[in-house]
Amino acid sequence: MSIKTKFLLLLVLVTTLFGSVYQYITEGNIVSAPVADGDRVSFFALGDQGSGRYRQHAVAWFLERECRAAGDINFTLLLGDNFYKKGVSSVDDVLFDEYFESMYDGPCLMGMPFYAMLGNHDYMGNPQAQIDYSVQQKGTGRWIMPGTSYRKDFGTVGDSSLLQLYVIDTALPLDPQLSKIKNADRNAVWTVVASHNTVRSFDAVYGDDLELLEKMKGLANFGVDLYISGHAHTLQLISVIGEPVYVISGAGGKRPYPLVEETTTISVDQRTLKQRLYARSDLGFAKLSVDPEFMEIAFFPLSFEGTSIFRISRECKQVKEISECIAPL
């Protein structure tokens, strides 16, 4: 048994043994998430979490711990594949409670909204039920999915939004969804597109999706700074010349995928076209924080390696390729 596996089993054991005590101590002490209306916004992002098994429990425990430690998380973004293996059947499906409500029931996570999107496994069931669960404000009311695609603005800087988030669904026609991004008012400091499917990846299962890449090649020209996805069960940060920065956070509850050995793609003139700045085949999640000057991307793997943080400077981005403006902290 590997050290990584032993650590995960130990974490699950501790969570199981002390879960009831922790729940008793914190019962009734829900911590309300700060409202995302200022000049700083922070959120968790994780996908492929809906296994209902020990891996999801372990990540949920870690998520709650980091939520309480940070104290500034405004919301959580769920990147799809919310309910393995075949989605949910209706708004009354017990999986809503087992895989979501009861899974993320610590006092910090109980006090925040979860913005969700559909993944390929969610489409194997009744995808409309996940939208209806949101619209009807079922359960605790934390589940937010107003449609298969939607836009949400967070924070303010003068007359502009701090963060403009677009959730898109690559299983549906992309042209009308991308047109909304292209034709939107450019009054946001940071623009992020989120979807379940990866476009760029160094995992050994999917890798780059060339068909999707061709359809989405204009994102950088639309002012998109970052594309975040799940699907590949890994944690990754990828830089590509002429494209948005790619964040993959698909390690929320299923067995992680292996990574390929390749770390860069070099052009004939020796320019680095594609580079993986961070990649882990571990369970875990990402945290993103934005203010008027910087975007910070932190990865929290369930391993002994600890947190890794990267920063993108807004000032740098205004004069250089965004791929040149990423620095580890």
List the helices and strands and how they pair.
Layout: H1 3-26, E1 41-46, H2 54-70, E2 75-78, H3 95-101, E3 114-116, H4 127-135, E4 143-144, E5 150-157, E6 160-167, H5 175-182, E7 188-194, H6 210-215, E8 226-229, E9 235-240, E10 245-249, E11 264-266, E12 272-280, E13 284-290, E14 294-301, E15 308-313, H7 314-317, E16 326-328
Q: Can you give a write-up of this model?
A:
The structure is a single chain. This protein has 7 helices and 16 strands. The chain has 329 residues and is α/β, with parallel strands linked by helices. It has one domain: Purple Acid Phosphatase, chain A, domain 2. α1 crosses α2. The two termini are 33 Å apart. About 5% of the residues have low confidence.
Structure keywords:
alpha/beta, 329 residues, Purple Acid Phosphatase, chain A, domain 2, globular, 23% helix, 16 strands, 8-stranded mixed sheet
Could you name the CATH class? Alpha Beta
Number of helices, where a helix is a run of at least 4 consecutive DSSP H or I residues: 7
CATH architecture: 4-Layer Sandwich
Multimerization status: single chain
Q: CATH superfamily, please?
A: Metallo-dependent phosphatases
Name the helix and strand elements from N-terminus to C-terminus, one letter apiece.
HEHEHEHEEEHEHEEEEEEEEHE
Helix content: 10-25%
The 3D shape can be described as globular
Question: In total, how many beta strands?
Answer: 16
Outline of this structure?
The protein has 329 residues and is an alpha/beta fold. The chain has one domain: Purple Acid Phosphatase, chain A, domain 2, CATH 3.60.21. The protein contains 7 helices and 16 strands.
